[in-house]
Amino acid sequence: xxxxxxxxxxxxxxxxxxxxxxxxxxxxxxxxxxxxxxxxxxxxxxxxxxxxxxxxxxxxxxxxxxxxxxxxxxxxxxxxxxxxxxxxxxxxxxxxxxxxxxxxxxxxxxxxxxxxxxxxxxxxxxxxxxxxxxxxxxxxxxxxxxxxxxxxxxxxxxxxxxxxxxxxxxxxxxxxxxxxxxxxxxxxxxxxxxxxxxxxxxxxxxxxxxxxxxxxxxxxxxxxxxxxxxxxxxxxxxxxxxxxxxxxxxxxxxxxxxxxxxxxxxxxxxxxxxxxxxxxxxxxxxxxxxxxxxxxxxxxxxxxxxxxxxxxxxxxxxxxxxxxxxxxxxxxxxxxxxxxxxxxxxxxxxxxxxxxxxxxxxxxxxxxxxxxxxxxxxxxxxxxxxxxxxxxxxxxxxxxxxxxxxxxxxxxxxxxxxxxxxxxxxxxxxxxxxxxxxxxxxxxxxxxxxxxxxxxxxxxxxxxxxxxxxxxxxxxxxxxxxxxxxxxxxxxxxxxxxxxxxxxxxxxxxxxxxxxxxxxxxxxxxxxxxxxxxxxxxxxxxxxxxxxxxxxxxxxxxxxxxxxxxxxxxxxxxxxxxxxxxxxxxxxxxxxxxxxxxxxxxxxxxxxxxxxxxxxxxxxxxxxxxxxxxxxxxxxxxxxxxxxxxxxxxxxxxxxxxxxxxxxxxxx
Length: 668
Prior knowledge:
By secondary structure, the chain is mainly alpha-helical. It contains 27 helices and eight strands. The protein is globular and about 90 Å long.
């Protein structure tokens, strides 16, 4: 592919991605968390305070509400409080929506559009990183996986921080990789700024403060070892300057850390930065020291009376307070839903399962192939094979040969060796001949392709491990969304299959990417409710997950359109998920009327609904403690997207037969 064709292809994909995000932002009503994020973002601009929604850092919502601040949109912060037990941002947001019924949808759309550049940043970074590793085709694969990922399309068109955190985080890791390889002041400065911005998107990224120093130490040791083992004339000169380079590296890394904390504190306007630890009021058991199960309204501080109480905390007050508040919520716990079971607390495998049912099948296959390729090659490509041997890192052939020396008595070993070599050759796993000469500077520095790949996967593994360890509740796949771009880049190594001598193998990456695009667009703009074909499709997503994975209150605009098209649907009862009510959307509804009956054994209740039309969100329908769960036993008379169902309860026996045709397919 020529450079010009590559640029046009990337441009077309990005333009389509922006168009999909922009249209999705128009077609959806405000979801649950957006109602809180919008007033919180405006409070940062108007009040220069960061108490509202402090369970997330402020960067994304501050960007989202910038156009509204410039337009001087009015808002009242009545009831403003900073206690974690009372999330007043939602009440303030709901009140603002009531006051601005005629205009709030347009203002939410503007705020969503302001976040689209963040998604573009993630797309471009995926392309550049994958292209550096494995060539143009790998870059295009990673680009398409990001731009057409249903979860990215869903959250990239909202003012929630998850897609923005994924984009800024992968950009920061990409730039830090550049510094590890080049060790220049420019890359160090950019790494520090981006690390600070990353910390302003999600608390999850705090683990980078441990991962980055570890990576630097590994690269430093590997580089020194390679120099020591080298017999080249330049090796002696390098050894003489080793102390100087170490001092420069320490200076650069110190600059990265200082810039990151400077940017972080600037993001909060240095709000009570360097406050002493003993002056904080904590509410989580971990930081307050309260007994398990005891939640004291005035809070506490386990560090008071200790030496640590006098320690200045180099972060803004609401940064540390936000970590405490989100820990407080995890300790409280909430009911969680998975595969038809709703219980208090969560499951350690919840996010892995959610990824399996909500990622397109084509994406999952590409990631699986990439894993096989990495394992078979021991992470080493042909161009780096010599350096890898010097470092003691063996290729697949070397590993097989070593196995033969220890197991030569078994003739089957030679068969296995031959099979592995032939398998690698058939499927194009011998390396990417089209990769650029400077494709993998980090692998060249360390002398091992292993580290290049492990550095790429470490953030994804860290995010999955960190989030999965919090089992107080499981509601949102979006919590692990920052891991997605690293998996997309890793999947880009399947471009090596394009070197295969077999046509079907060469077509495999193309088929998988095409399948991902078709699968995603087949449910668009209902990307938030997307479930892959192996899970039963989006229409059966409620059997697996609930809440922000399928029904987050996003389809009230479609409900309004359906009501206008069906004036005969009276009396009408609408029960959606979230803080935006049908009345705020301009939809007239009637109060719910139902009767309750006790079972003969007195152990359960049954509900009988009054005749009429019911539009109910799936989050309520799957909850066995919710009266509307009874309706889930009926065959729906229609659908609103993939998040809500329509039921017509007949006047006599509740049979839905003979109802008007409201359409068997989800409304678009």
